[in-house]
Each structure stands twice: as C-alpha cells, then as structure tokens.
Amino acid sequence: MAPELLEDALEIGAAIRRARFEIIFDVLQTWDKNKRRNFPTVLCCSSSSRGALELYEVLRREMRRYGIKSPSSFNPHITLFYSDGRVRTRSVARPVRLRVDAFWLIHSVVGTGRLEHLARWPLGF
User: H/E element holding 32?
Assistant: First the structure.
C-alpha cells in the first residue's frame, strides 16, 4: 500500500463516529459471476443491516472526499470456502448474529492469501 494512501485511510478511519450494530448472516449461497471455477461459498444477509449500510456510506463518502475510489455496491458476507462446486441458495437453520463494535483497516497482500491488520477503530458513542 502506498504510504500516502495509508495515511489517508488512517485519517478517514479515525474520523468515523458510528454506533455499534448487529448484523445477521442467514443465507448460504455460492457466488459464481464471471468465474469458471473456484467459486466462493458465503453466508450473507437476507435483509440489509441498517448499521452496516450507514457505516459503508459514511466510509464511502469520506473516501470520495479524499479522492479514493470506493466500491459502488456493498454486500456484507462471510466467505466459508472456495470450491469448483456450487451450493443451492437457501436460508440457514441457525443464522450467525454478530455484534459489530469495531472496524478494521486490512491490507490484503495480492497473491499470497496474507492479510495485514493495519488499524482498528471502535464503534459506539
């Protein structure tokens, strides 16, 4: 990560003030868009988490203010595994409920599968 980008990202994260929130992952599905193999199977949400969407929007707004590109869509999920097979999309019997009380800046080192945790910011007033 470029040093100036890291500095901006750290400033953006430190400026965020949002409440804690809960998110519920209750749908199992395989994402296979534009891929021929090694599909991610994920847990995702059947309905939007208001808190997660608000955090995404404020982060996206701040990133634009700093001239940093941000994704135009947001789909909270937990990747379970990668496989050439697919699972049928379905609701899970026991949803995974997470209380989100912080967010992190993570650098994914391309091609290595390694994640570097660069910063953590608490949520809550």
Answer: none
